[in-house]
Structures are given as structure tokens and as C-alpha cells.
Specification:
This protein is of the alpha+beta class. It has a 5-stranded mixed beta sheet with strand order 5-6-7-8-12, with no helix packed on it. It has a 4-stranded antiparallel beta sheet with strand order 1-2-3-4, with no helix packed on it. β19 (239-244) and β20 form a beta hairpin.
Length: 672
């Protein structure tokens, strides 16, 4: 026993165990969430808005309750909807200068003392002429005498300025002045800066400014370089910065001239300010932080598609999904990406350590070490001896790698991503596989696939072999030649044309099948065989009758058998049928194996006939009972543009084909 390989194997195996354990720990850590110090069980399912300001957390509910919690989780104060005069739901919470501003669905805006909950002021988002603004966002500027509110204003949108110094009560709230309402067609986002100016972006990427001295008239000040709408704007020392819906970060100077644009590779559906940065949500799930200082994505967190960002602060943010509120500490969220990378890195290192440990284990004993060395040496000598052959295979291997293996590996990678070409690409783990597993119609489509598979195998083997034997039995060579030609010509027709011929010319409402049926039954009512769930599947199985497409392979194989074997069989009194089963079939077994494998793979991957019959409509194919997993994959890719889910479906099909092919090879090897 060699000590060095033994010690190396033990050390490497220990590294494998440690790497696997560390990988498991990091996989657990990457799903970590922050615990909120306060007990929110009494508000479960009712929380509409949350906010954090100077270490105090605030929440608003559907029934108009507003509550504040200290850093230790204790409740500082609480105001119920009944105490505030109306049980209107909370729509917006914001803060400035130790005052919490809460906007309700009844258009009231109540200013509370952040620490005690005392009501300091009450406003109403209603103009002096009686038109109401439905609150959607509030913005403040340090030291300003105004604060700004935006929302729906009749059939349009509006931004309104409220005077902080005006005094109102619950009974007599302060309305907004008519000359402090800027009515616009649409608002994507806005910010309040410079003490008296509201800057807003519309859906076309244009930015407007409305100042307090002439607030009703907004002026165009700039636009985005991409022409796409901004989802959030923020003031910076150099000017302004904003992120648009395609995930491009735009920087502007004081005069709103574009000074830079940077693509982040993450599409944005919602964005809110988090201190100096932006917390954003992707359209198909996922929340990420844009660091304005570095102009990059600091971290991303996986979420459901319907998740909402409840609030964001420099220290924490909260996400609501399905009635559940999940809190994330910003520092923890920033480490989740690192945990994910470390988890996969440790897993790769563990796999490498295990392979190295196995190699060292082979060298522990002298005899195994010598065999190991001889095996490698023999492989090297064989390679060098036939080096011209191996080098000539390099172009073939490169082409196969580029056009076969690279797409295959790329598809497997995409199955773990939310990917849309030219829009976004980010890691979502096993979410696509979870969606596929939860898609009932995908698994139901496996039944038609298995039916087509069994019938395709039968059609690919039985009729062609019988026909090939019949051709060989024909003594007149001229008749045999023209028969082969006539049966070969349909095989060169395009597959789509053949499908349309069977679909309309034979099984259509005015097709041959209905005409033949009418000859035997004068009362026969024309039937579209491919529009009825009870006849579509059997009709599609009949496509390609008489199914002799692969007869040439069997014909050539049988013709290549030695004639001496036939003469010996004839002398032994072996008849035609007995010769087929005892002589021909065993000797053409390699060709039969080839047809089985190729037909198996082609049948599982097939969707063109189903696509044409259902006119590309997957729900209609499901009703007819002819949808297959491959059709689902194509529909998910081309109709829903969901590359990740389609790739996950492809992985399931790949695993099924891989297992079936391995089993097939093993069975055929055992038979051989």
C-alpha cells in the first residue's frame, strides 16, 4: 500500500464531505429571511402599507388602522379607523421632519407625530372645486413649505402641492388649492425637489417640471435616451438619476441633459426609492436593489410574480405576496447572492475533490496503481498512433459541440433562469421546474404522447418488414422495381404537405373518408374527424397509411444476407414464414434496433402534426386529446415567450429520453 496516495485520498474525501456540507449550509442560507421584531399576527392579511423612519416602523391596514412599532418590537401607538372617523384603507405612508403622513382611500391625508401618534394636521386630496385625487404616492423635500401628492384625477392624473403650514382637523381638513394642481395625461413616477418643483416622467420617457409659481403649467425639461418611461426618479448632487422599465439607468445634470446611460440587464415593473438607491421589482418576479453610487445591481431576491414591495428604507424592505409579508434586512439580502455563488462553488469543489479522491484511491495499491498507469499510457499510445484520425475528427467534434451540445447546455442553464432575449436574464433556481410540476395539462399530455409512441413504434417496424419480405418474394424484378419506386415517391413529399393532405383531403368534412362512408350509408352526415375529441386521436394515428416508410432499410439489410444461408435453409425444409422468424429477423436485429431508437426519439419530440391539426392552439389540442409535452414546450416558448419554463419542460423530456435510451441499450445488449 502506498502511503502518499492513501493520505491524499483520505484528505480529498474529507474535502469532498466538507464541501458538500458547506454547500448544503449555503443553500439553506440563501433562502434566509429577516425576522421583524414586532408581532404582526393581529394584522395578518390586512396590511396594505408599511414604512420605516428613524428606527420606527409604521403600518396601515385595510380598515384604516395606523400603528407604530419601536426598534424592540413594542407598539408605540395605534389609531384605529373608527378613531380617525372612517374605516378607509391606507393607500400611502411617508414621512418627513419627524412627522408621518398617511393617505387614505377616502382622500384624507393625516399627519401624525412619529413618536406619540398625535394628529398634527389633516388634509384632503380634493380641489376647491370639488374634484378628488386618489392618492398613489407622496414626496417630500427637506426644508420646503410644501409636500407633493400624485394620483388619479378624474380620467387623468395629477400632482398636487399641499401647504405644510395650513391647519386642518378631521372635521375640517385642508383642501388643495386649485392653482396647486398640475393635471397631466399620465404619470409613471415623480419626485419633489428644489423646495418648490415637482418633476414627473410620462409613459413616453419625457420629463416635465411644474414649479409652485405656475404649478398648473408643466414644462418639458428632458427625456430618456431610450424613449422608455422612467419607473423612479431621484435627486443627486450632480443632478438627477432614474431607471426605466427596460432596466437602463439614466443620469442627468441640473438642466436635465443626459450625462450617461447604463444597461443593468434587469427589466423593471415597479421601482421605489430606498434612501439614495432604488428597490425594484421585475415583471415576472424577483426584487433587486440598484446602487446609485456604483450604478449596478447590488443584490436580487426571488419572489412570486404577484409580489408587491410594501416599503423600503436604507435598512430594510418588505414584500407582500399571497397575504404574507416577508421582511429583508438590506445587508442580509446583499449576502444572499454571495450565499448562492458559494453554494454552487462548494458543490463544484466537492465534485472535483471526489473525482480526485477516486483517482488517488486507484493508486493506493501497487497492482491497481500499475493498471491505472497502464490504462492511461495505453490510451496515450493509441491516440498518438492514430493521431491523424483523431485530428481529422476535430472539425466534426467542434461542429457537433457548437450546434448540439452548446444549445443543450444553454437550455439546461435557461431552465434555472427567467430569461427574455434582449430584456432580462436572472437566476430563479428551481422555480421553472416547480411551475412545470404544477402544470396539470403538461402531465396529462403524456398520455397522448405514450399512445403515439406505441403506435409509431408498431408502424415503424411491422408494416415495413412485411413489405420488404413481400418485395423479396416477388420473382419478377421489373414489377418489384416499379413497386419500390411508387412507394418511395410519397416519402419525398414535405411532411407539412402530407399532414394537410390527410387533414383536409381524407379526414376533412368533405374528405375521402366521409365520401366512402356515404356510399355505404346514404343518411351519413359529414363529419370532421379532426374536430371531435373521440375521433381525432385515432384519425391522426392513421396518418401515413400504409406506414412503409422505413422498408428500404429492412429491404437492403435482408438483401445483404448471404445467399448460401437461404440455400441451406431451403435444403433443411425451412418455409417462408419460418425463415422470416428464424433467419431474417435475428440477422437484421441491428437495423431493428436503429429504427426503434430513432422512432422512439422522434415520436417523443414530435409536435408538428398536433400543431397543424390544432391550428397552433394548445387549449384546443388539450380538448381534442392530442397535445404532447413537446407541443407544450413549443407553445410556452413561442406563444408565452417563457424561455425558462420551456427549457424546464425540455429538461424533463431530455431526462425521459435519456433514461429510456439507456434502458433500451441495456436490454438490447443483454439480448445480444
Amino acid at each position: 500500500i502506498k502511503r502518499a496516495p492513501l493520505i491524499s485520498a483520505i484528505v480529498l474525501f474529507a474535502l469532498f464531505v466538507a464541501g458538500a456540507a458547506a454547500s448544503g449550509v449555503f443553500f439553506v442560507l440563501k433562502n434566509s429571511k429577516s425576522e421583524f421584531t414586532a408581532d404582526l399576527s393581529a394584522y395578518e392579511g390586512t396590511i396594505e402599507q408599511m414604512y420605516e423612519y428613524e428606527g420606527i416602523s409604521y403600518l396601515g391596514t385595510k380598515d384604516g388602522t395606523v400603528a407604530a412599532f419601536g426598534g424592540d418590537g413594542g407598539e408605540l401607538w395605534k389609531k384605529t379607523g373608527a378613531q380617525l372617523g372612517d374605516q378607509a384603507s391606507v393607500r400611502v405612508i411617508s414621512a418627513a421632519e419627524e412627522t408621518i403622513y398617511v393617505a387614505f382611500s377616502n382622500f384624507k391625508i393625516i399627519a401624525f407625530d412619529g413618536t406619540t401618534g398625535e394628529i398634527r394636521n389633516v388634509y384632503v386630496a380634493r380641489s376647491e372645486s370639488g374634484v378628488q385625487i386618489v392618492p398613489s404616492a407622496m414626496e417630500f423635500c427637506e426644508g420646503a413649505d410644501w409636500f407633493a401628492l400624485s394620483g388619479a384625477y378624474g380620467q387623468r392624473n395629477a400632482i398636487a402641492l399641499f401647504d405644510k403650514n395650513a391647519q386642518g382637523t378631521l372635521e375640517e381638513p385642508v383642501p388643495v388649492r386649485d392653482d396647486m394642481i398640475c393635471e397631466v395625461a399620465n404619470i409613471e413616477c415623480f419626485t419633489f425637489a428644489d423646495g418648490d418643483s415637482a418633476y414627473y416622467a410620462n409613459t413616453t420617457g419625457r420629463i416635465y417640471r411644474a414649479s409652485a409659481d405656475s404649478f398648473t403649467e408643466a414644462k418639458l425639461v428632458g427625456k430618456t435616451a431610450t424613449g422608455k418611461s422612467l419607473k423612479a426618479i431621484s435627486r443627486t448632487k450632480e443632478g438627477f438619476i432614474g431607471v426605466d422599465k427596460s432596466g437602463v439607468l439614466h443620469t442627468f445634470d441640473e438642466a436635465w441633459e443626459t450625462t450617461g446611460s447604463k444597461e443593468l440587464g434587469m427589466e423593471v415593473s415597479t421601482a421605489i426609492k430606498s434612501g439614495d438607491d432604488f428597490i425594484c421589482k421585475a415583471p415576472k418576479g424577483g426584487v433587486f436593489l440598484i446602487d446609485v453610487g456604483t450604478q449596478s445591481v447590488s443584490f436580487s431576491v426571488s419572489t412570486d410574480d404577484d409580489a408587491l414591495i410594501l416599503f423600503s428604507s436604507p435598512q430594510m424592505f418588505a414584500i407582500s405576496s399571497g397575504g404574507e409579508v416577508v421582511f429583508y434586512d438590506v445587508q442580509l439580502a446583499g449576502r444572499l447572492g454571495l450565499y448562492t455563488a458559494l453554494a454552487w462553488g462548494m458543490l463544484g469543489a466537492a465534485a472535483a475533490a471526489r473525482i480526485a479522491a477516486v483517482c488517488c484511491a486507484f493508486n493506493v495499491r501497487q497492482s491497481s496503481s500499475e493498471r491505472f498507469v497502464r490504462a492511461f499510457a495505453g490510451a496515450g499510445k493509441a491516440f498518438w498512433k492514430h493521431r491523424l484520425v483523431y485530428f481529422s475528427l476535430i472539425p466534426v467534434i467542434v461542429v457537433i459541440g457548437i450546434f448540439c451540445y452548446v444549445p443543450m447546455v444553454w437550455s439546461i442553464i435557461l431552465s434555472f433562469c427567467d430569461y427574455l432575449p434582449g430584456e432580462h436574464s436572472y437566476w430563479i433556481g428551481f422555480e421553472n421546474f416547480s411551475k412545470v410540476i404544477a402544470t396539470q395539462s403538461f402531465w396529462q399530455s403524456c398520455i397522448p404522447m405514450l399512445i403515439f409512441l406505441l403506435t409509431d413504434l408498431a408502424k415503424a417496424l411491422i408494416p415495413p418488414i412485411i413489405f420488404a419480405e413481400c418485395l423479396i418474394a416477388i420473382r419478377r424484378k421489373g414489377f418489384s422495381f416499379w413497386t419500390r419506386c411508387l412507394l418511395f415517391i410519397p416519402g419525398i413529399l414535405p411532411g407539412v404537405a402530407t399532414t394537410l393532405l390527410w387533414m383536409n383531403g381524407i379526414f376533412g368534412e368533405y374528405g375521402l373518408a366521409n365520401q366512402i362512408a356515404a356510399l355505404f350509408d346514404p343518411d351519413w352526415v359529414s363529419l370532421n374527424f379532426l374536430a371531435n375529441s373521440s375521433t381525432t386521436l385515432p384519425s391522426m394515428i392513421m396518418f401515413g397509411l400504409p406506414w412503409v416508410g422505413s422498408y428500404l432499410i429492412f429491404y437492403g439489410a435482408i438483401m445483404g444476407l448471404p445467399s448460401s444461408m437461404y440455400e441451406a435453409a431451403r435444403l433443411d425444409g425451412c418455409g417462408w414464414f419460418k425463415r422470416i422468424f428464424r433467419l431474417d429477423l435475428p440477422l437484421i436485429l441491428p437495423q431493428i434496433k436503429y429504427i426503434i431508437i430513432t422512432t422512439f426519439i422522434a415520436s417523443v419530440q414530435s409536435y408538428t402534426n398536433m400543431y397543424i391539426v390544432a391550428n397552433g392552439d394548445l387549449p384546443w389540442a388539450n380538448q381534442l386529446g392530442i397535445s404532447t409535452p413537446a407541443f407544450h414546450m413549443y407553445y410556452e416558448l413561442m406563444h408565452n415567450m417563457n424561455y425558462g419554463t420551456a427549457s424546464a419542460m425540455g429538461v424533463f423530456l431530455f431526462l425521459f429520453l435519456l433514461v429510456a435510451t439507456v434502458i433500451n441499450f441495456r436490454m438490447q445488449s443483454d439480448q445480444s
